[in-house]
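Hello Y.,

Per our agreement to keep a running log of every chain we model this quarter, I'm adding this entry. I've kept the format consistent with earlier entries: sequence first, then predicted structure.
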Amino acid sequence: MTGICIGLDIGTSNMTAYVEGKGIVFSRPSAIACDTHTGRILAVGEDAFAMTGRTPGSVTVIRPFSEGVVSDMKITVAMLSQFIDEVCRLTVLKPNIIAGVPGEITGVERNAILDVLKSAGASRVCIMEHPYAAAVGADVAFTKPYGTMLIDIGGGTVDISVVSMNSVAAVRTLRFGSEALTQDIIKYLRRERDIEVGYLTAEDIKKTIGGAVVRNEEIALVAKGRNAVTGSPINFEVTSTEVYWAIKEHIDMILTGVKEILSSISPELSADIFESGIVLTGKGSLLYGIDSFLESSTGVQVRIAKEPWLCVAKGLGKSMHNIRKLKKSGYGFEYFNEL
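Predicted structure for the entry above:
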């Protein structure tokens, strides 16, 4: 196969690229800042994300993916083009891309991914679901008839899957991810405390004191916001217990999804999972206590994969090294053009 091969984990929160022969070359926010009037691109990635909540009316920061799928075709193409050009600036041939997508997507959503990657400069594209890629990237042995459960908690989706015999035996995609928890905190503070905070502040609160369980020793964080009644800027304290209750509904929805998968698969696969355990991948698996919460609620041992936020990208990269095995698993490249 001619042309450079790129494994691209297309996420709601982050875009991560694995390049053949180089490994992970970047992982950056899926964000782009544009001039509101002219549409001119002002920044992408980290620079654009840092502008969130701090731009004048003439500048808009856009997250072009929603729930793991394309929400703005034109902006998505512009962002991907810049990322791909950065990787391929010294090459002539257009790249071959293995793209990571949610475990459950519609035909329309799949075609949208193909269209944006073609428009962004890809020569060939192979679509691979996050559960399969995450299993490969997390070094889960699933070539034999023996089931293992993975939960990939991304920014826009949660993929709950069972892998066995080098394929995904069962999958359910929840159309929310760790970004929904950030929005939960924003809504909670507005509803319960009459405090308004921006996305970046809420994200910091989640990462610093958020948790899927109530901590034995409560901790607190002082943050900046605005009084929703008077409009005055304020400093306020928020506790870890408050954040727990703010995000609890979505955490419980993940547990419900796990139980539904366990009840829908064969007794043999279910028995395998109770032996092999559950593997957590995705950046959302770093939320404090999510592993212990799921373990105590299901009775199944839960572990967090090494560098969970990179598992999908690593899996895409490892898969490209064995195209023959990839085809046997049902994954093939769709051809566009050579030049």
